[in-house]
Design brief:
Transcription Termination Factor Rho, Rna-binding Domain, Chain A, Domain 1; about 230 residues; Rossmann fold
Amino acid sequence: MTPRAIVTDIEGTTSSISFVHDILFPYSRSRLADHVRAHADRLTALLDAVRIEAGEREMSVDACIAQLVAWHDADRKIGPLKTLQGIIWAEGFAAGELQGHAYADAVAGLRRWHARGIPLYVYSSGSVAAQKLLFGHSSWGDLTPLFSGYFDTAIGGKKEMASYLAIADALALAPSDLLFLSDVEAELAAAREAGLSTILLVRDGPLPDGPFPAAASFDAILPEVLSA
């Protein structure tokens, strides 16, 4: 049965993990402190969010920067950090210093499904703003017209069943109507528990003989033959 919508992860699924970790993360990390100091007056809400997350209401700007740097280095999925990364990346994309990566087979698959009228959505730990930047400034051009919507961890953690139920509810679809693509088995387990169909993307190495249908690329994904 063809799914009524497809939800895809980004890192390791549509795009290279190395792009995020070797290009995007170092870019924001090297500019984080200077950016906050230069724009602290218009980042008051973000800095207050840092203080709330850290449980220290009286943190100075420098202390907030230190906390953001620590979260960044630990790759923490913290809301204010993800927002700040998105702001810094937006400047880089606008300046032409960054260009989003997407696998050729992922672009072809997304275009193929879009042409068939299957709504496509993104669910990533990166902020919605960052998702739009990556797809909007990709090496394949602006891919955002392919997507009907975006979800980040504001709807819940990616390893939590409730998040996938919330996505289905937001789309006014039954969970069984959705197909979720990811390279992380814990995410797929949560999605399957919620009732979604799932496919594991394995970009490197042999396909595992595991609990999830697996594919090496989007070329091998034929959603019409999937079962929940």
